[in-house]
Amino acid sequence: MVAGEKDRRYWVETMCRIGEPVLEALALRQLKERMPVHSNGSDREVYSHLEALGRLLSGMAPWLELEGLAGEEAYLNIRYRALAREAIDAATDPASPDRMNFAEGHQPIVDSAFLAHAIIRAPRTLWTQLDSRVQRNLVLALKETRSRKPVFSNWLLFSAMIEVALYIMGELDWDLMRVDYALKQHEQWYLGDGTYGDGPDYHSDYYNSFVIQPMLLDILRVVGHEQEDWSAMRTNVEARAVRQAEIQERLISPEGTFPAIGRSLAYRFGAFQLLSQMALIECLPASVSPAQVRSALTAVIHRMLEAPGTFDDQGWLTIGFCGYQPEIGEPYISTGSLYLCSAVFLALGLSPDRAFWQGESVDWTSKRAWSGQTFAIDHSIE
Questions:
Q1: pLDDT band at 193 (very low <50, low <70, confident <90, very high)
Q2: Average pLDDT of 5-24?
Q3: Per-residue DSSP letters for 303-359?
Q4: What is the CA radius of gyration of the chain?
């Protein structure tokens, strides 16, 4: 078995290990009973369950949507599709003990958006194949978030993402203005060289990858054609995403580490959502091969996942960056928040025969640079 095949098996096993406790509990309508809610904040029990579901499925979605798998992976794919649909039912059914909070407080905007993003990434598996009763409940749940006002930051994209999901669902009252405001405001917040501000100011963190650029890309992919000015944005947004992916690949050290800067470090390797998404849509920068991205991300996953204390005795993720480090959890971080790490697995939506999953391991940029090998020179896009 070549390295690419081994890496894919490891990614699938890891993704399923992370997702199993959440989806199994929801399928049995026992998530609120089973999932521990650890946090340095005081009110996270109200939000943590929707956080876990939305964030987990947003990362798993491209793999759930993938057809043509074989062997053990095909079996797992079928099983987790069914669990995901059961989970959405449990989360939105008014009679379910696991019915989630879509309207109390402001946080539901965030995690409804991650659930919406999952549906946008897997519309057949997570929307079309839902029972009509579940579809109705899901639409009503997402619309509950309209009573919440987003913060003037990347949160604008959360409201927009929910509306784009409603668009996919055929809801004629999807709100064009929420989408337009988010897109236009982020254009104002573009700072240069592939980086957006999170609101009016620049922050040294991973929110360009946690939220901003993946959501901009998928919003425009789905509804960009609806408005001429939206369509005109796509070229620049995509070029900036390519540059940001190039920067992200260079941040991964020869040892599979990356800088512990900014907030929300407890999302672990979810920091590389954008790099994985650009691999998924096969739009990596010319200086970066698919195999070197696979190799770099695999090194990061190994490094973080295998740190002692990453999981508790029941298989739930714990708060930390590399292992159990509860002190790095901001007050808004709880057990459910941690499942944003699943965003690194987007590239599993590529079939095993694509270049990303082929061949032996390839040294990534920092590994080449720090071992005296030839590596590509770097430069700004502006």
A1: very high
A2: 98
A3: HHHTSTTSB-TTS-B-S-SSS--GGG--TT-BGGGGGGGGGGGGGGGS-TTSGGG-S
A4: 19
